[in-house]
Amino acid sequence: MSSFVVHSVPGSPFGRAVLATLEEKRARYRLAPVAPGTTKSAAHLALHPFGRLPVLEHDGFRLYETQAILRYLDRVLPEPALTPADPRAAARMDQAMGVNDWYLFPGVANVIVFQRVVGPKLLGLPTDEAAIAEAMPKAKTVFDELARLLGAQSYFAGEALSLADLTLAPQIDFFVGIPEWEPLMGPHENLLEWHARMVSRPSFQATSWEKVSAMAQGV
Questions:
Q1: Residue 47, by phi and psi: left (phi above 0), alpha (psi -120 to 50) or beta?
Q2: pTM for this one?
Q3: In order of start, what are the domains of the chain with their CATH numbers?
């Protein structure tokens, strides 16, 4: 099968979910790096009319929206399967992916991670502590619910890796090393063990910010 092209900003958690899925599938792919701040350019809007990330291209077929891309990859690259055969396990996978897209990223990661990591380290902006404090109650609700959904399982859809884990892990990994990690993750031993399990996977190590940045530079 021909290779896949992924258009993404290095460091994007949504882009990383796609790259990690391709790594799990052992598929050939190429990163087409998108420069930060250019997603509203005419060139990028021609790929994604809403100016978001990532975009997948495969044999003349173009697709945007992370969940759609991940499900497509799991269909055209069936081994290893990343969607449970059991309907209830698959429903839990879908639910966890929805929590990521509707609750973990908007109002939580896009506030706290931006204020702690993206703004200060990439854009030279001061941290808005008030914005972080305002986001923390929702963040606590999200992390508490993720811990409840995970329960005693190894992964979010059971004992096997699924698309839910590959969606959530890149978002949660951005919280490592910032002050909010301990109050959000510390109370949940199961989430801590799941995160350690995820970061040890070769697919996750191959798609770190440093590795993807080097990939973008052709290193």
A1: alpha
A2: 0.96
A3: 4-82+204-216 (3.40.30.10), 87-201 (1.20.1050.10)
